[in-house]
Amino acid sequence: MIDQRSRPSSLHDFATWEPVLRLLWGGGEAEEAASSVRVAGRIGRQSWSLPRQHRLPRPDRAARAEDMQDEMRAVERVRRALADAGVDDVPFTAEISPTGKAGLRLFGSSPAVEPGLGDPHPGSLILVEGAVPRPWLCLPDPVPGAAPAPSADPALLGRTLHERLPDAIGATEAEIAAAEIRLGVALPEELKALYRVTRSRWEDRADDHTAAERDYRAVGCELFALDDLYVAEASSRHCLWKFAAMEAVVTPPDAAVQGLVGSPGWIVFGDNGGGDRLAVDLTPGPRGHTGQIIILSHEENIGACLVADSLTDLVMRRSSERGGGAGGDRPPVVAHVNIRSLPSIEAAVHAGLEVLSIGVWEDEPLSLAPVTGLPRLRTLAAYPGTLADPLEIARLTTLEFLELGPEEWRVLLDAGAVPRSLSAAAITAHGIQDPLPIVAIANELLALWDRPRITQTVLEGNVGPVQR
Q: Mind listing the pLDDT tens digit for each residue in 21-45?
């Protein structure tokens, strides 16, 4: 879709982009060249990526912000236009002739396309509206007989916290009941005992700037206010399809914590000060305790780690000595075939395989015949050039996510063999600077599912000659 009509937004004014294009053109240095300059990049409100060689700093000092002043000034005009238009970022491509005549192509957003990762190429394509990767749909398994740890002691917990926080303002029973209604879950007795001592509201601390630090020392974490408790269901753990589709929910039989993305029984009540969230776990693993304390890493998309067998143990500084579950000798449900991991696709095959990732490969291209018919295979990601016959993908009828290079997608599209079971897809474009063919493939895939396409706006102007 190409839109060449004039628009009121300054984002679609050539003058807004002229400083960036002049910078990428080289300020006229290409005037004597026989060929045009082709460039592509992305400018966003928070960051940008331009294909430009920066001058090295003098040997006697490090790079400084002033070394990029010209680039920052050029980009700032576009960033102001983005803010005015309410747009987060814009990928672009441009062709600039030796005389400075420029054709600029801006790629619009689509609700069916996730953001790219810094380069001008589109992110994952959401082919089915509202679709989420399968791990984000998994609910906790029931664990018959799960019970609080013997160390759980609400009375001891309350007394200890009263001693440590004698002046704190506790929550009323009505406030605790209101929190339970808001969350849709009954709070465990230990958590109630904690908030009866301190409801941890900022307004309760007045001008006491050390109160938060005292709470931290008393409880063992940055304690959330009662009003800020939340349930860490899967939807609270946002992840791009490209990465989420590579995850799998696995809970070994000796695990204390279920290997979930999120759970209706994970009640988040604090932070470790580094962005990792602490939660009371009401849906423990086979070897866990109801009400155990777990931590959800902000660097992980799935799973949680056991911190303490109970909230009482956390407050009393007693860490759990139980492990997370080894999983025995079960074959992995996520398999990586590449020059450093599994040596073949055959080595990855078993009935429970869910995710197959084929990475950098220096041998002959691989056949997908060994995984044909596997009942749980839902994700295939294959590095460009690693497949002997991309049409073998048509026989993988359980795929929900597929990531391929442009040439492999071209084969499937031309043969009408794109799997209709897909919910999302991605195009791997390593080393390809021109986003136009990538966007074209993306739009063909979106059209197969009648999803909104990536629009294009074409602007023309001149960035030269430079006055000397």
A: 999 987 444 444 568 888 999 999 8
